[in-house]
Amino acid sequence: MNADRLENEVRGALRTWAPGDSGPPPGIADRIVRRRRRRTRLRAAGAALALTGVALGTTLVTGAAGDDAPPAFRVSEESDLLWRTTLPGISWDACTTGPGAVFCRGALHDAVGIDARTGDLQWQRRAVPAGSSSSPAGALPGVRDGILYTYADHSPGAPAPGTDLVALGTDGRQVLWRHELADDSRDRASAVLFDGGILAGGPGARSVTALEPRTGRTLWTHSWDGADCDRAAIGGVPHLMCSPDEGSPARGSTVVRLDPATGAPRTVASVAGPTTWIGTDRDAVLLGAGELAGGAEPTELVRVDLRTGAVARHPVDGLPAGVVADGIVLASGANGRAVAYAAGDGRRLWSRELGLDLRAEPGDPTAREHASAAAVDLRERVAYYLGPNGRLTGLDLDSGAVRWRARVQVSTEPVAGGTAPELMLRDGSLIGLAGGELFRIRPVLH
User: Where are the transmembrane segments (predicted)?
Assistant: First the structure.
């Protein structure tokens, strides 16, 4: 399904409300489409790297004539597969780790718990009603103090069920509380753990609520107008990264700090034009501006110092969006390449073909599988990636040189363009989710 068809489907589903329902909040379809469109720009820009990344990758990774080549590594194909587990149900979309366990959710399950040491399924909590299919999640909020935070349908079985943030004991036995979210994004910004609470979307589309982690009691709320805001906890403190609504870019973007105890807002910095949130690098917020955020200007990396409010803008070649690790932004997309940028000034550091054999949907070469986001081992200085077919690769964080390759046998799934497996680092090993297979593998590096 291409972007235009997807947007029309989203609008149609939200505007065709079940008889007797009060109807969706005004403008909710456009707001969800707008958020989805911003994320699609990131993927589209990643695909554009295929046009320039081949030549640049040859220069930056292997070294041009007269240039110093990156450090030579002996590529290891050794690993220890600790366990592999076939998960029950279908369409698993997000996982997170906690003490001694891995937790995942999927279309037919709000959560399952797996023993991180053995891979044994400990418990499962099915979506209600049984057999119903829940909306997918791009990420899970996480685990803290014996509580798993996950997502479930607010009105199971309804044509537009909505989304609840659910606090669940990590033994799977008890739902502690539920909180209805304003939309169905279910991504990394939908619910964010901060020191003393969890920041969730709602009650309205342009508001957030801080909840007490164990009881779900409302601690405070904050609302705004005229902007679309992502949420993050930086140094344990909740922040909003806000970009103006389409049609009113003159308002500019803002980075706002929310007091953890009261929710009182303080504008850290104002940034001209629309932006999109990339991530954080130490005491700085990284934003994308220009074409990356839907503007007409060339793409820029915007760095906001949270201590001083200073704003620095750097022109960039390509896509400075992805996982941020130790001053490096690691981007990857459906073109099968990983590209590293300096988080300080946006310089392209290296580019490398991942070799994960990503497939395209039959009849639509633009709808391709994605590699996982990078799982970075800072001790070994390796960025690991997983493909939907179970292939794994490990690249040197500083040079992009291949240091490790492996393959885990997983079931063959039909091509689903835009989908990506998940990869997490835990105690020097990797936990991966590809299709319905969850596994743990320990790379052996030379």
Answer: 44-66
